[in-house]
Design brief:
127 residues, alpha/beta, Rossmann fold, 5-stranded parallel sheet, 5 strands, 18% strand, globular
Length: 127
């Protein structure tokens, strides 16, 4: 049996968070794609057809809430599992993230095990 790595797109403008998250996921065998601003993230989500999207909220260009809402509105990306990952930890921010279509909302910093378990659960629910 050939194992095909799940493709995860990380949209994050903080280079240290992006590097750390990429490292964790690559070590677990995921194929990692990255984008550092909202427009690039939106384009990559449509062109690369990732299995899961990890999306920061505060991004240059278009914020994560707008990206999430836009992806949910298009049939091609409507079912894409989206994990919002943000320093914005207020209940109102979480509520907004879930309202615009995020499947999960985690506040930075997050434990590696929590991040991986949420990703595994979202990928399992998709398949």
């Amino acid at each position: 049996m050939i194992f095909i790595a799940k493709k995860i797109l990380i949209v994050e403008d903080d280079s240290s968070v992006l590097r750390a998250t990429s490292y964790i996921l690559e070590k677990e065998g995921y194929e990692v794609l990255t984008a550092v601003d909202g427009l690039e993230g939106l384009r990559s989500a449509k062109e690369e057809n990732p299995d899961l999207l990890i999306l920061d909220v505060m991004l240059p260009g278009i914020d994560g809430f707008e990206i999430c809402h836009s992806l949910r509105a298009e049939s091609q990306t409507a079912q894409l599992p989206i994990l919002m990952f943000s320093a914005k930890g207020q209940e109102a921010d979480k509520a907004t993230g879930l309202k615009v279509g995020a499947d999960e909302y985690l506040t930075k910093p997050v434990e590696r095990t929590v991040l991986l378990s949420k990703i595994e659960a979202l990928l399992a629910a998709k398949s």
